[in-house]
Structure formats: structure tokens, C-alpha cells
Write a structure and sequence with these properties.
Layout lengths: L27 H19 L5 E5 L1 H12 L6 E5 L14 H10 L10 H15 L3 H10 L11 H17 L21 H7 L8 H12 L17 H13 L25 H8 L9 H6 L10 E6 L17 E6 L17 H19 L1
Parallel strand pairs: 1-2, 2-3, 3-4
Helix pairs in contact: 1-2, 3-6, 6-8, 7-8
């Protein structure tokens, strides 16, 4: 098994200064060319015959696109939680992402019946109180924010809450995991969305209850003094991926609109437009909406072969995934009670039967491709 690092996301830097020095070399096409060269060299060195790619999330997209772009090099691909249809140029409605997040917080998904309504009510109340300094102070106190937000920071606070529930839905695994929290010493609990919603079970839930729900992720360590809800993300990984959001319009939930109830539990959120964000963040860069559709043809997957797409019931990214089979060899597996590419995790006794079955089907396809 070979793990290949994506250029610019770690030590593989084409230029010493990273993307800021030479952004032109950061693209899906360049990354796939790296993988194609690596596989070709290793195939010659180790004399293996068959190559199967595996990936989840953006890695799942790359896995599928690798097979599509280089079918003479790759024999098959497992693409888990890969939102290959989540492109506005292909007609994708990003609000579906937030609707799926809401589904994961609903009673149907095992959460407290009052949770969705309480979150929707909290969003409306925050917006109502945002108009005055005293109202914003009340919000800051109830949510344990590090400072009282200015009026023009309230949209950032609301997005911070939305992003938290998005992460809880993605990471709604059946056992404790640090995959989403990023802190192995302080994993989120099993089914963290259900745990978060347990704080919002009362019809009279307060901002303090909402803060506890948010804290399932943001205070998993139990030692966070206050919540910094107005910070902007300028870390290397965020800046690198957002550059690709601009150059290739890769899916990024912060740029998806929400509608509010009854569609989703948030509000009529209008995100920053990429035509504003990209030039201001990346020195005049204009978003290229048709880059990926032109490379891979979003509506022409039937021209490809030997790809298995899997999507978890609780994962917001299934809204942009392949949910039905495209052809005899472009297969879709729906993972009931599954979250973000849970099928690629190590086997665990607490796995739902659907995850075990998904892995069985995936390996059956791998065996078929190897033996063809």
C-alpha cells in the first residue's frame, strides 16, 4: 500500500515558498500527473501488475478522477464520500449540503426531536439580538465568546456555528474519533451529533445549551476558556485548499448558501461570492468555474469505468455525491448510518452492519478488477 502526498500539502513543495511563490503548479491536473508518474516508476521497480486507488473526501474525488484521466495506469478506484457533482457549473445547489447537515441532526437520524427547531430558533434569536451592542453582549455571554463581536462580525459568528454542526455531521461516527477534531488526545464521542443535540432536547433551550452542543467539537478537550468565533482561517492548509477553491472551484461548504427552515436549521445565509473572495485573497485571481467540468465532464461519468462511489447517510457531502449507479462498472454504495468515508476506517466492532457490507462490496470489486 502506497500513500502519496499531494503537492503543496506537506513536504512536497515545488517551490521553497510554497503556493505563494508558484501558485500555477497547484492543481488537480498537476497532482494526478504526480501520481501517474509515481505509479509508473514503482510499477517498473516492483513489477506489480494491477493498481487500485482509494481515497475519501477530496482524496475520493482524486481517486475517481485518477481512474478517469489515466485508465491505462489505474485499474479501478474506490471513491468514498467524493462530492464529484458538487460544482455550480454542473447545476449543484450548495444549500443541499446544509439540508443534509440538518437531516443528521434530526430525530430520523437518532437525535433529540427538538434539536433542529432549537437550532433554528437560536439562529433567529442571534440575528434579532445582533442589531444592538447589548444584544451582541448577551450573545457573547451565552455562547462564551472571547469578546463581544462587532455588528459586522456577526455573520462570521453564525458561520462558525454552522461549520461546527457541519463537522459534527461529517464526524458522526459510531465510536469516539479524532479524525474531525484533529486532536488524538481528545476525540469527539461516538455519534457526536446526537451528543450535541442532547443539550438541545428541551423546548426552552438557551444560548448556554447551544454553547454546550458546540463544545462537543470545539471544547472536546474540556479546557477551552472561551470560544474565538470571529477568527479567520489563514493556516497553510486552509489557504492552500482555498486557492484551489478559486482556481478550480473545488467544493467548500463556507461558500454554499443556506435557506433556513423548513429547508435547513440555519438561516437564509448568502456566502461571500468567489468573485469577491478570490481577487481580494489571492492578488486579483478570478475563479475558474468551468475548470473541473472541462477536465472531467461532470455529466459524462458513464464514459468512465471501474469506479465505486460510496456515501454515508449522515455525511453532508453525500449531497454532491454519486447516489445511484451510472453503469455496470460505475457503482454507488449507500452506507446507512455512515458518516464521512467511514468505510475507509479500520474495522471496529462498533461498525454498523451497513459499513461492513460496504467494505465487502468494495473488496469484491477490487478482486474483480485485479483478476480481469
Amino acid at each position: 500500500m502506497i500513500f502519496a502526498e499531494h503537492r503543496y500539502y506537506g513536504g512536497s513543495q515545488p517551490c521553497p515558498g510554497g503556493w505563494a511563490e508558484c501558485p500555477a503548479y497547484l492543481s488537480v491536473e498537476q497532482a494526478l500527473a504526480d501520481y501517474a508518474h509515481l505509479v509508473t516508476v514503482l510499477r517498473e521497480q516492483y513489477k506489480f501488475q494491477k493498481v487500485i486507488t482509494f481515497g475519501g473526501s477530496y482524496g475520493g474525488m482524486l481517486s475517481a478522477w485518477f481512474r478517469m484521466k489515466y485508465p491505462h495506469i489505474i485499474d479501478g478506484a474506490i471513491a468514498a464520500s467524493a462530492p464529484v457533482l458538487a460544482f455550480t457549473a454542473g447545476g449543484y445547489d450548495g444549500s443541499r449540503h446544509w439540508a443534509t447537515t440538518t437531516y443528521t441532526g434530526s430525530a430520523v437520524a437518532g437525535c433529540e426531536p427538538a434539536c433542529v427547531d432549537n437550532i433554528a430558533t437560536a439562529f433567529q434569536r442571534i440575528r434579532d439580538l445582533s442589531a444592538t451592542a447589548s444584544g451582541r453582549a448577551q450573545i457573547a455571554s451565552g455562547l462564551n465568546l472571547c469578546s463581544v463581536p462587532a455588528a459586522d462580525q456577526m455573520s462570521t459568528v453564525l458561520l462558525w456555528i454552522m461549520d461546527t454542526f457541519d463537522s459534527l455531521a461529517m464526524g458522526n461516527y459510531p465510536y469516539p474519533s479524532s479524525y474531525i477534531s484533529g486532536d488524538p488526545l481528545h476525540p469527539m464521542p461516538g455519534y457526536p451529533m446526537r451528543v450535541a443535540c442532547s443539550y438541545l432536547a428541551s423546548p426552552n433551550a438557551t444560548f448556554h445549551d447551544l454553547a454546550n452542543a458546540i463544545g462537543v467539537l470545539n471544547n472536546a478537550s474540556q479546557n477551552v476558556v472561551c470560544n474565538n468565533a470571529t477568527q479567520t482561517y489563514t493556516d497553510p492548509i486552509s489557504m492552500t485548499y482555498n486557492l484551489q477553491v478559486c482556481t478550480e472551484v473545488l467544493p467548500q461548504s463556507d461558500f454554499f448558501p443556506a435557506k433556513g427552515m423548513p429547508h435547513d436549521m440555519f438561516y437564509d445565509f448568502t456566502p461571500v461570492n468567489l468573485t469577491t473572495f478570490c481577487p481580494s485573497t489571492y492578488n486579483g485571481l478570478e475563479p475558474r468555474y468551468t475548470s473541473i467540468p472541462q477536465l472531467f465532464g461532470l455529466d459524462r461519468l458513464k464514459a468512465a469505468s471501474n469506479i465505486v462511489f460510496s456515501n454515508g447517510e449522515y455525511d453532508p457531502w453525500r449531497s454532491g455525491g454519486i447516489l445511484v449507479p451510472i453503469s455496470e462498472s460505475i457503482v454507488s454504495i449507500y452506507v446507512a448510518q455512515g458518516a464521512h468515508h467511514l468505510d475507509l476506517f479500520f474495522t471496529d466492532p462498533r461498525d454498523p452492519p451497513s459499513v461492513t457490507e460496504a467494505r465487502r462490496q468494495e473488496m469484491a470489486w477490487v478482486d474483480k478488477w485485479i483478476n480481469e
